[in-house]
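**Backbone shape codes:**
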Amino acid sequence: MEVNDPIDLGQLRAEVEEAGAPWEVSFTSMTALEEEARVIRLGVPPSPGVDIETLEEGKEAAAAAAFQATAESIGAPVSFDLRNVGGSTTALRSRTRVAVVRALPSASSPRWRG
């Protein structure tokens, strides 16, 4: 795995201050990682031989195709019933107990006898 050159945080801080940018260099969980671990955490590098510029050029067409895709167009079922797994269908039933709640009479209730 290709590892980037480490960033000199002191130099970065000086450049940010010099530019007057509203950003502060500080400790984060990412800066605590070694560079190799950071590369793994930040994503998948392109495969050898893949031209990134070519990928960028086809990005809009790929996004449009993804938005137009339907379940049927990729071979997925339009719907499925979790009660029918492997051809065995289970009946629909309640999974909770029925609780009987009785309201207590209030002081203003005609039945209330104090």
User: Anything to note?
Assistant: Helices lie at 9-19, 35-42, 52-57, 59-68.
